[in-house]
């Protein structure tokens, strides 16, 4: 009877205990859901922009202004992890966030000394404090212990170690093992030796007091204390400890990488929330180009700047991106990214005018063309040296970058047609303010474009005339970007072959003569008033673009493409591999068809349409005032007429197309209301004529 009563009582107690445990577990789960670990600091990380091999190009501080890089156990030398656990938390792998044995040991030591001489914080408790900093108190300790248990409940040991490796303080604004290793030791943490590992284990104990760049002797003593402790734990041999103690500690902070700053800024802005952003940049080449840029800037006006872009033609990837010689130099307006800035290209667009001329059957590389004084309406372009050459071939005219021949060809191609071909290829051509349509001055820099777009166009000379957006972000698909045909493969090869015969700038010997690396197809350009100096070089594999000038647009007298930008371009090519792909040339020495043997002004059948056949807007004409509104204020129909030009004709009002007439040379238009409008007619060759009239 008594035995049965005892059994029933035991069962009731077990039931009550199990119920109590269940209640406690339920309460813990509820608290865990209500108060999850605060991970905001763990998410506030430095952004790293890397080169094509994963090496850092530039590292940014995080939102709090700290250098805090994410880290995992795999990012760190196993020796460091071994020393860290031996010194900080020997039972880390077995406790549940709080180490009872460490608590008892610390209490005994502190009572015996009458003061705090030892702590009992585990690595997990330290992570809790780093995630949620609080003033030191007993209450804070209890919260840290609870948070530590919560972290152990939610995460594995490797994850918790990763949190510590990311957040541990190392003095100043250095946080985490990766930033500390790079800024104090100049190496990634996976390469730490015993002395370096012991130093980085010691610093988080008192990061401000132990900063090696300010208190090297304190840092050394703290390092040696770690070495002695781990020796007691047999983590290092006495010989290894002695060798580590004999080494000095670093006495200065090292700067973090800051290459390709303009590109890095652009990619960080374009990828919010990304912690690591890969690029196509070749880190070694980027550093070489930056060094060249700094040296070249020293030879320029103190307010002048430069920009360089290097592209691999095979996949359009950007290998080097230099937006300025020094992004921090305010005198040279270094913060401005001159790779993307829109500037006048001078005569650097001429190769594409000739290329379209080849495709249209207007010219051949050996077509004879006259470089003589010529008027185009009220404009008479002259050459850079103010002289004229006379009769020569198109090939020679392009190699010598003569102005009149280029304008003659553009007149036949049509400036609107040329500008539209660039636009369809993705190049942004910006016309001067107040100019509605491109004109012949486009051939000589009468519109603006960026180095980025120009380099993409030149890359097409090695890509069978196909243009597609350049790639700078490493995660962009090599096949991404729609390709547009600017030139036929034949025309692109002809242009490139011609430019391979362009003479190098004075004092520069082409690298192929020294290294057998093949010719560079060279084209330079200089904008009006010596404001912009350009040089572009193309080989089968690489395209290099260079811009030099003052970002504020102030002229730089006597600085032009051939003597300022081209020498830097050849220095960049000297840093590229000798294998630059197959050359395009030489130009075949063949007699062009009879109709393409000569192009010069004065011979209407060769130089362009006869005057009678030139496109002319005959009604309305400029400055007319037209009474074209009815009594109700609505526009009355009127007939727009034109003569000449090759049909079909297109009609535009203020740049907006209103009609397309395949046969007729007139069209009916009804004005929308009163005001000043610009009427334009375009023919099939891209030529245009316009009139500005007032509607009343």
In short:
The chain has 696 residues and is of the alpha+beta class.
Q: Which descriptors would you attach to this protein?
A:
five-stranded mixed beta sheet, Beta-lactamase, five-stranded antiparallel beta sheet, 16% strand, 22 helices, 36% helix, elongated, Penicillin binding protein transpeptidase fold, alpha+beta, 696 residues, 4 domains
Helix and strand topology:
Elements: H1 2-34, H2 40-43, E1 48-50, E2 56-59, E3 67-68, H3 78-88, H4 100-113, H5 123-131, H6 138-154, H7 157-167, E4 174-175, H8 177-185, H9 194-202, H10 216-232, H11 238-245, H12 261-270, E5 276-278, H13 283-297, E6 305-312, E7 317-322, E8 342-343, H14 350-359, E9 368-371, E10 390-393, H15 394-399, H16 403-413, H17 415-424, E11 449-450, H18 451-459, E12 466-467, E13 484-485, H19 489-500, H20 511-515, E14 521-526, E15 532-538, E16 542-549, H21 561-574, E17 598-599, H22 604-607, E18 616-619, E19 625-626, E20 638-643, E21 649-653, E22 656-661, E23 666-669, E24 675-682, E25 688-695
Parallel strand pairs: 1-5, 3-4, 9-17, 19-25
Antiparallel strand pairs: 1-2, 6-7, 6-16, 8-11, 9-10, 12-13, 14-15, 15-16, 18-20, 20-23, 21-22, 21-24, 24-25
Helix pairs in contact: 3-9, 5-6, 5-7, 9-10, 10-11, 14-16, 14-19
Pathway: Cell wall biogenesis; peptidoglycan biosynthesis
Protein name: peptidoglycan glycosyltransferase
Domain Glycosyl transferase family: 64-230
